[in-house]
Specification:
This protein is an alpha+beta fold. It has seven helices and twelve strands. The radius of gyration is 17 Å and the shape is globular.
Length: 221
């Protein structure tokens, strides 16, 4: 790897291998640029506490490892009274991995506050669809009258679920999907849900920020 910003310790990834900066080599949230979306490169990134966020105008992938990491332990998921009603709403049907492609497409196309455009480009969609086909990416889906109205997707790396994005077209649909993710996580020995960066919505559900060093320590465990 070639260092291209000495002050912030940002590296240009080598096209010939799938190496990433170690914790000791990091300073800023952005730790590397370049590389490609080869499945093994993406898996190596997540195993090393790094994830791709967007592609810039020069077609470079930007890889992040935030100094403050947002995480949620499945047993700490908060259920409000209103959410409990939605969870118990028998109109909602929850499925897993039935419609991964539509989940990620909806995450890309849903309108969000303070966001003019999505970072989930066609390159991201193709890359994570490959990971789904390989058995590393998963989706939780919420249906209402057989219509997909909410859901989320992410990668399962050892006993950590690395959440990528979620969407909701009906009240609490994504929260209900997230609740079922936590339920399945507890039942299957998944110790941690990586939420990546701070989000007030996720904080209301029990997620919290920890240091990058703490997160890397959890990954080692």
């Amino acid at each position: 790897m070639e260092i291209i910003d000495k002050e912030n310790k940002i590296y240009l990834l080598n096209e010939e291998n799938f190496d990433f900066p170690t914790l000791e080599m990091m300073k800023d949230d952005l730790v590397a640029i370049g590389g490609d979306f080869h499945p093994q490169r993406i898996l190596n990134a997540y195993q090393n506490g790094i994830f791709p966020w967007f592609i810039d105008e020069n077609n470079y992938i930007h890889w992040f490892s935030p100094n403050k990491r947002m995480i949620l332990k499945p047993e700490e998921f908060k259920v409000s009274k209103s959410l409990k009603k939605s969870i118990n709403n028998k109109s909602y049907e929850i499925k897993s991995n039935e419609n991964f492609y539509e989940v990620i497409k909806n995450c890309a196309n849903i309108k969000r506050k303070n966001e003019e455009e999505t970072w989930i480009s066609e390159e991201f969609i193709y890359a994570y669809k490959q990971l789904f086909d390989l058995g590393y990416a998963f989706s939780i889906e919420c249906y209402l009258k057989q219509e997909l109205v909410g859901g989320l997707y992410g990668l399962l790396i050892n006993n950590v679920f690395c959440g990528e994005s979620m969407f909701s077209k009906k009240t609490d649909a994504s929260k209900v999907a997230f609740y079922h993710l936590c339920k399945e996580a507890k039942n299957n020995g998944i110790k941690l849900i990586d939420c990546q960066v701070h989000n007030a919505h996720l904080e209301s559900l029990g997620a919290k920020e920890i240091t990058r060093e703490e997160y890397f320590s959890m990954l080692k465990e």
